[in-house]
Each structure stands twice: as C-alpha cells, then as structure tokens.
Amino acid sequence: MLARLLTWPLPAAATWALAWALALALRSADAPVWVALGLPTALGALAALLPWVATTAWRRVFVAGGFPLSVLAQSLQTGLQGGFQGGATGQGIGGGLPSWLWLAPLALLLLAYPRRAWRDAPVFPTPRGALADLPAHIRLTDGARVLDAGCGMGDGLIALHAALHATWPNARLEGVEWSALWRWVSAWRCPWARVRRGDMWADDWSAFDLVYLFQRPETMPRAMAKAAQEMRPGSWLVSLEFEAPDWRPHARIDLAGGRPVWVYRLPVRA
C-alpha cells in the first residue's frame, strides 16, 4: 500500500496540495502575501529534496516548481488577490475564462502519460542518427522483427528505420506504447511500422530479433530480467544511454555529446 502511495507522480501531487493548503490557511489568517507565497514555495522546495518524493533532478524541479507555477497561472486569470481569496469568477488578464482553466495542461499530460505508465521513462525522444552505427555491431536476418518497447512519439522507430533499412530492407519494425495519444502520433509518423497500444512489460519479447529501449536507470533491471527470460539466444537488446548493470555489453557506441548506446547479445554474460 505504501509503495502505491509513493508511485510517481502521487508524491508531487500531494506536495502541491499541501503547499496550496498552507497558502490558503495563511491567507485566511491575514498573513502578508509574501508569507503566503514564500512559505508554501519553501515547503515544495524542501519536499523535493526528500528521496521518497523525487528521485531525479527533473522530478525535483517539477515538485519545487508546481506551486509557484500554479499561482502564476491563477494570478494571470483572476489576479493574485482574487486567486487566494477563491475568486473563481474574477476576471484578470485572462478575461472571462474560468480560473480552473490552468488545469487543462495537466489533463493533457494525463492523457499523454496515463497512470499505468508512471513507473516507466517519460517521453524523451531518441535523437536523429543515434543508431546510425548500429548495423556495424549486430547481425540480423533480412525480415527480422525489431521492437521499440515504449515507442512514445516514434522517434526511436524513425532512428531504427534510418539505421537498418539499407542493410536489412525487409526488417519488420514494430512499436508498442501504452499511451493512446502517443501511439496514434507514432503510427502517424511511422506508417511503415506496425504500432500498437499495449503494455511493454506484458508484451512477449520472444518473437523479436532485436528489442530497443530508451528507459531510465530504475527500470533497466526489470528490462534485463524480462530479456533474459524471454528473448532467444542470438537476439539483441539495445539501450540508449542507460547500461544494464552486471551485464557484459557486446558493444558500446559513443555518440556526440558523450551519450552511449549499449548493445547486448542474448544470452549475456555477467
């Protein structure tokens, strides 16, 4: 139960709610505006330093910045005083629009990144050309099945297609993505690939000759265990940036800027 409560972004939402509750309580007590703004902002900044609230630099930024950004959005709509006094019908720079309209981007974010995908990596696109040197380090049969697990907006599929098409023109590229919005975007951008909506962790990787990942360090052990259990000998696991701990890589490709591409061949040695 505790693990579910600490699932991102629930700690961030709880921090933002506490900051707003403190701000409203201070305004009800007739505290100066700078106090009502400063103390909740400090609360968010301190909470962002707690390891069970935020584990990465970007998450700490989101936690610490959530309250002041929401105040700014609210003030643009109703004016700072109106926002703290609950003036939902007040008119500010935003005219007659409802003061809760700033929640619309959050709704779009939840559509693009549904709760079931919170434990996975956020949508960071694979850079163009990041996999260009991959054919020099792997061997595939023409017609091999290649999976981008968690394909997001399709940038990984585009990079795979650009890298593999000249050497293996009949390679069958596939993508799986849990977000319905990103699945649609990826399918639209990659008409030559089969893109479906699904859970990459529930997907069966045994039929694929190569699986490509752009995850994060926390999810790499889970991906390693899945690959070791399901993928056939001689198949390939490729990870952008993040290494598989305790696995000996078949190759490491260093990109401009220092980001590596890790290439593993199953079964891998410790």
From TrEMBL:
SUPFAM superfamilies cross-referenced by the UniProt entry: S-adenosyl-L-methionine-dependent methyltransferases (SSF53335)
GO process terms (BP): methylation
Keyword Membrane found: yes
Keywords, alphabetical: Membrane, Methyltransferase, S-adenosyl-L-methionine, Transferase, Transmembrane, Transmembrane helix
Keyword Transmembrane among record annotations: yes
Cited InterPro entries: FAM173A/B (IPR026170), SAM-dependent_MTases_sf (IPR029063)
Sample GO molecular function, one term: protein-lysine N-methyltransferase activity
Transmembrane segments: 31-54, 61-80, 92-113
PANTHER family given in the database record: FI06469P (PTHR13610:SF9), METHYLTRANSFERASE DOMAIN-CONTAINING PROTEIN (PTHR13610)
Name of the protein: Methyltransferase family protein
Taxonomic lineage of the native organism: Bacteria, Pseudomonadati, Pseudomonadota, Betaproteobacteria, Burkholderiales
